[in-house]
Amino acid sequence: MNIEILYEDNDIIVCAKPAGIAVQSSSVTSPDMETILRTQILRSGSFKNKSTILHVIHRLDQPVEGIIVFGRTRKAAADLSAQVKAQGDMNKTYLAVAYGSFTEDEKEGELQDYIYRDTATKKAVIVDTDDKNKAAKKCLLSYKVISEKCIKDISENNVVDFEGENVSEKISLVEIKLETGRYHQIRAQFSNAGHPLLGDRRYCSDKSDEASARLRVKNVALCAYKLSFKHPVTHKIMDFEVKPQGNIFKEF
Predict the structure, then answer these.
(1) Rounded to two decimals, what is the model's pTM?
(2) 159 pLDDT exceeds 50?
(3) For 139, which of 11, 39, 182, 223 could close a Cys bridge (C-beta 3.0–4.6 Å)?
(4) Domain coverage including residue 151
């Protein structure tokens, strides 16, 4: 397979990561973005820079799609990594399809929680602010509901609740801006808020999981569709945007 290249020069490569592929993997049997890109650079005649040196700057979860930037030199990688750490220098905006309908006063707002990574379960766990677990860190995001749909309008299967009665379940298209970048932050926070993302088997509820199966959503319905940062050498503002490829996004 070939990765869509959005931009490349001697210092950076910006590309669109497909859902289901890891950015970096320790398994030799599982292809990842790094390996695929290196092969693509070697085999393609369209790259300006034939160097296969790639530095991972940031990651997206394996089942998540979206824009990724790689550094091509140590200097460029160090500059981009500093932008990731400095809030506001590298801006990521996501689109997600969440289970359920948001009330009028919830259509736009912020989610603020304290979160830590459970190494045993490999899940992000949200705790109260007074929790004694010192590993918990503050996480913050802002969001805006763009649109919503009734599942019965897009599903080929009958819509029934768990008692067998017809219902009008809804799903919502949400734009999300990260203020912090914690492990599984968006997925864990929206699940905690009662709106798990479709296709997310790790942070789902019974109803969201059933809806995902009914709508045939295989990967997490989350896409890093906008990325903005300063070029590490020219310092020019670089803005990129892609359309989510997941079929559920095309319903909106």
Answers:
(1) 0.90
(2) no
(3) 182
(4) 4-251
